[in-house]
Amino acid sequence: MMRINSFILTIAVFAFSFKGNGQEDHIVNQAKFLQKSNASFFGMNQLNRVGVLYNSLKINEATSMDNKYAFGAISFQDKNFTIGVDVNSFSLDEIGLSSSLASLNYIYKIQLTNYTYFLPAVTIGLGSSRINVENLIFEDQLNTNTGFISSESIDPLAPIIGGVNYYDLGASFIIHNEFYMIGLSLKHLNKPNISYNKEAPVVKPISIGLQGAYEFNINPYERSLLPRYSYLFTYLNIKKYGESIYFALGEEFQLGPFSVGLTQQGGSVSSFSINNIGITTGLAFENFDFGLHYNFQNQKPGSVFSPSIFEFSIIFDFSIYRRNNRGLNKKLQIDNYY
Asked: What does the DSSP 8-state code read for residue 15?
């Protein structure tokens, strides 16, 4: 019975991953990891940074899915370009499901005006997905008369669903200054085949994303009620994935070294719905940026399934000048371009 339930759970997870949610990586706090929606953010302000993230998606009371993400960016300021790399993987140990995508990104910097910059980027990724077939039960293994389960299957699908590898190509750009940002991202340009059965291909459709952000100074007169450097960062990402449309919205107050905010995600698959709402907190300490996020569970039978998500992240900035920010932790900056 456990293996039967595991097989059903596998199907449910795939439906959630590729149809119900439309998110390939399940990172929900996109305001701290802007490069996940648009690779050009690796070149933002030409900072040298590394970061890691872990989150856990609670499928039900007994099962959760672990997601791990790591990235690094190094800028060559004299040459006006940045190289960014990232690896995202998730696993569901109970059924032996694992999937990962490693990407290499090239971002070039073009100065449009004294304070406005254009960052085009290209991306090449290598993805893989694996299922432990021993954890699955096929129909011919079940004996309904005795209740026993055979250890072997002659189902022709059994020997060919172990794993799949694929290439993934993308392109993007952003235009930004210290106050606003707009961006466009194109993913899966080569429509990679992600099917375990190559005789029945399943391709990722091209994903088109539009991003926008604006950062407000909410303490321009340096009132004592708030820290000297206090900002409100608002962010919107709209994505068309196949026939569906998804959005992610975030509002984050940066109060000196502390931050607190809200996130909302939703979309239109068969009908429009708000999938989840979350709360995020953060602390910047010298070159480190720590973050915590929690997404509240939302389940509407026949409409939405969104598990609760706990997320933790650390980002480290190698810039020798970051310690001198003295509380200025804006997300949209251009000081390092000069």
From this structure: H
b/e burial code for range 175-201 (CB count within 10 A of at least 16 → b): bbbeeebebbbbbbeeebebbbeeeee
pLDDT band (50, 70, 90) for residue 325: low
Tell me which residue of 288, 293, 323, 334 sits closest to 310, measured CA to CA: 293
Which has the higher per-residue pLDDT, 90 or 82? 82
Q: Which residue has the higher pLDDT, 212 or 134?
A: 212
* Measured distance CA(13)–CA(275) in Å, rounded: 16
Per-residue confidence band for 159, with pLDDT thresholds at 50, 70 and 90: low
- How far, in Å, CA of 200 to CA of 284, rounded? 49
Domain holding 101, by residue range, is 2-337
Residue 92 phi/psi, 5° resolution? Answer: -130, 95
Burial class (CB in 10 A: 0-12, 13-18, 19+), 280: buried
Assign residue 104 a region (left: φ > 0; alpha: ψ between -120 and 50; beta: otherwise). Answer: beta
Q: Which residue has the higher pLDDT, 174 or 57?
A: 174
Backbone angle region of 26, left / alpha / beta, with phi > 0 → left and psi within -120 to 50 → alpha: left
At 149, which CATH number?
Answer: 2.40.160.40
∠ CA 62-10-186, rounded to 5°: 115
Q: Which residue has the higher pLDDT, 268 or 262?
A: 262
**What is the residue whose two structure tokens read 């059994």?**
158
Domain count, the chain: 1
* Other C-beta atoms lying within 10 Å of the C-beta of residue 320: 9
Tokens for 298?
């939302």
**22 in the Ramachandran plot: left (φ > 0), alpha (ψ -120 to 50) or beta?**
left
Instruction: Give counts: helices (H), strands (E), the chain.
Output: 1, 17
